Amino acid sequence: MSEVVKGPRAEFIWMDGELVPWDEAKIHVLAHVIHYGSGAFEGARVYAHPKGSAMLRMGDHVRRLLESSKMLRMEVPYSAEEILQAIRDTVAANKLDACYVRPMIYRGVGPAGVNPLANPVNMFIAVWEWGKYLGDEALNDGVDVCVSNFRRMAPDTHLPMGKVAGNYVNSQYAKMEAVLGGFSEAILLDHTGNLAEGSGENLFLVRDRKIYTPGFGNTVLGGITRNCVITLAQELGYEVTEQSMPREMLYIADEAFFCGTAAEVTPIRSVDRLPVGAGSRGPVTKEIQSAFFDILEGRAEDRHGWLEFL
Ligand SMILES: Cc1ncc(COP(=O)(O)O)c(C=O)c1O
Fold first, then answer.
1. What's the gap in Å between 111 CA and the centre of ligand 1?
2. Ligand 1 centroid to 72 CA: how many Å?
3. How remote is the CA of residue 110 from the centroid of ligand 1, in Å?
4. Active site residue: 51, 95, 163, 210, which one?
5. Which candidate, 116, 49, 40, 104, places its Cα nearest to that of 71?
6. DSSP character for 179?
7. For a Cys-Cys bond, which of 10, 148, 162, 206 suits 186, CB 3.0-4.6 Å?
8. What pLDDT is recorded for position 133?
9. 3-class DSSP assignment, residue 306
10. Residue environment code for 174-209, b if the CB has 16+ CB neighbours within 10 A, otherwise e
11. Nearest-atom index, ligand 1, CA of 227
């Protein structure tokens, strides 16, 4: 058994239109989401940029939140602009320069049973300080990962492009398997046996200075960081191809890396105990990492309009 570790903390959580003290942000044990995973959520970041706190692509996160809600057939009582404003208010109320932002739209208490349709739709927004998801050294040194025995959900079992609470049971199985096996993270194969993604990150490979990533048909989440990486890599002159790839592409790649809001751009230094390339962060990964952090940390102009200052 793992020890119980205290979770994050901030002052206020936005719940259905009100800012409530952190310890009072509670939902009923019979809320539908707890039993059946009927919630759409997001993970976004606010960066401490020299010009002030900057939300990264928050409009795109809100768009995906509403798209995931649509997949769950939830009628959301807020517009995208209202949700954005509520996020700004929650970050401001917590007085954090940099934080992780977790909005969730979910089915609350209503009729018991699987059918969610008559349950109310509720929403909260929590924010907290969150450092480097895969460890402080991961960004420089890279992480050791395994290919999971668990496949990512198939397109006709769940809806993999939705960021839906229930989908993350699949991620949890793979993550537990990886961590208990001494790895930092797991890579899941898709329903066809080709590469999909990490338990909470998209996957990129580099071979002969060309960049590859699994496509939407490989049951990946349409990551917003994935889109940043594709944009920056193309700007740097690399050819980026979205395609199906077999597992062994990991073993013969020159470089591999994960990307996501939590993991940012994290090099992968080994897969299944085989070194990836030289077994350390490769030059293409480093170039893309630098291009990404240069924008977020104010060393380069925000030429794609990704930042919104608070
Ligand atoms: C399964 C999965 N894939 C990919 C990602 C990366 O997506 P994003 O860059 O939008 O955070 C995440 C994180 O949200 C995720 O949970």
1. 32
2. 18
3. 30
4. 163
5. 40
6. H
7. 148
8. 78
9. coil
10. bbebbeeeebbbbbbbbbeebbbbbbbbbbbbbbee
11. 9
Is 304 within a domain?
no
* Closest C-alpha to ligand 1, atom 6: 260
Q: Hey, whose CA ends up nearest to atom 2 of ligand 1?
A: 200
Q: How many domains does the chain have?
A: 2
> Is residue 73 domain-shared with residue 178, that is, in the same domain?
no
> Is residue 231 classed exposed, middle or buried when 0-12, 13-18 and 19+ CB atoms within 10 A define those classes?
middle
User: CA 310 to CA 308: how far, in whole Å?
Assistant: 6
The Cα 237–Cα 235 span in angstroms is: 5
Of 74, 94, 128, the position where a domain reaches its end is: 128
For 248, the token pair is 């062994």
Which residues have CB under 6 Å of ligand 1? 43, 171, 197, 200-202, 221, 223-226, 260-261
6 is catalytic: no
**Which of 158, 135, 296, 137 is closest to 224 using CA atoms?**
296
Rounded CA separation 170/157 (Å) = 11
pTM: 0.97
Per run of 10 residues, the mean pLDDT along the chain (length 310 residues) is 81 98 97 98 97 98 98 98 98 96 98 97 97 85 98 97 98 98 98 98 98 98 98 98 98 98 97 98 98 97 98
Q: Is the domain of 258 the same as that of 184?
A: yes
Residues 106, 167 within the same domain: no
Task: Return the ligand 1 atom nearest residue 44 CA.
Answer: 11
